[in-house]
Fold this protein.
Amino acid sequence: MIKVGILTLSDKGSKGEREDLSGNTLIELSEIENWKVVKYEIIPDEKDQIVNILKTWVDKDGLDLIITTGGTGVYPRDVTPEATKEVIEKEIPGIPEYIRYISYPITPMAALTRGLAGVRKNTLIINLPGSPKAIKEIFPKLIPIIKHAVEKIKGDPSECARD
């Protein structure tokens, strides 16, 4: 079972001015996979807060997967990638490349997403957009990648190559 944390970055959502549909969508999709969502928070787009929560969820709570939603665009307060970059030890550029690849046929605005993915200790961290529609389009296609990555991060020695 994969232990998951979902962190929504939203100034309005953190103040209760907007419902967190993308975080709730991620919870539902994770539970369909029988993954256990053990942490869920909505916080404002504040880099230091994001960094502190990511570090705590990895270093103290030992989560397998952290998914952030929101704060990946070009709006001045979008700082999720910068916070994530400060936390991760190994970047995985293929995941955000794949996310953009999935999204390009749906919207050319996919070119504006700046999300990152990487590993800190034994935790996979992935930044996703803040749109519930985007989450529904992207997340199901990431599931096999996430499962494989979590296994490898935990030290699974089996071969990755397919015959």
